[in-house]
Every structure is written in structure tokens, then in C-alpha cells.
Amino acid sequence: MLQVLILNPLAAMPGWTLAEIGDGVRAAGDSMGTPASVVMLGLPIVAALVVCCVFAAGRISVRQMVNSLLGVLAASGLIYLWASAGPAIAMADAFGISGGDHTGWGWTLPAVSAAALLMLIAGEVRWWRGSAVRTRRPGRPATAR
After folding, report:
1. Do 85 and 77 form a contact (C-beta atoms < 8 A)?
2. Whether the predicted model's global pTM rises above the 0.85 cut
3. Which chain regions cross the lipid bilayer (predicted)?
4. Which of 12, 46, 130, 144 is positioned for an S-S bond with 102, CB 3.0–4.6 A?
5. Residues of 15-43 as b/e, b for ≥16 C-beta within 10 angstroms?
6. DSSP assignment, residue 57?
């Protein structure tokens, strides 16, 4: 939220305040879409809290919790891109600037999300391979559960 709603707009319009940027966007007949961005960017936080509460209640295993949190983190990168599109387009239309990242930090969450997705996949492959090894019986081929 900090990147989408504060840092990037300030970096895109050096010397302007957030109020001036918002006024300029509204004068162009657009909106920064702050409520929608806050809701979208808050969804992964709520999902992570739910996963932790379910784990604390003893309803899921550590493996399920870790996989769920990695999944939430992996989805967060896409949600970030979706939530940042509205404000970026509004500013691009209002001020004739690029709608891209102006801070240099916009790559961070998508990169972390991609790493989380790779970790989730690698962990599941490792678990399934270990599961196949555990189910081997002498004289029988390995089977996955």
C-alpha cells in the first residue's frame, strides 16, 4: 500500500504533495482508486491472518500452514500489479507520464512472490518424492500417496 499509494505517486511527481497529485487526478476527471487499492492489497494480509489463526487452532499442519502462506505470498505479486494499475493509469492520464514504477521498488513484491511460488513448488515436489520413498516395500515399486 505504501508503494502504490504514497511512494510511487510522490516519485512520479517530484515536488508535489499527495494532496496536489490527488487534486490533479480529480481535475482530469479520474480517481486514484484508493479504496479499491486498499481493499485489494488488504486481502492477502487478511488471508495470512486467517491461515495463522486456523493453524493456531490446530486445524492444519505446519506443512499446510507454510504452503498456504507461500500461496498467499505468491498471489500477492499479482494482486499488487492489479491494485497498482488504477492509480498508475490515473496518474499517466492526468499528467502525461509513464504509468510504470517511478521508485525502483516496484519489482520487489513480484520478485518475492515469484520466489514464494518456486519454493511452494519445490517443497511439494520434495514432499511427494519423499512420500514415494517412504511407501516403498522390498520387491515392490514405489507408489505415491
Report:
1. no
2. no
3. 35-57, 69-92, 104-127
4. 12
5. eeeeeebbebbeeeebebbeeebeebbee
6. T
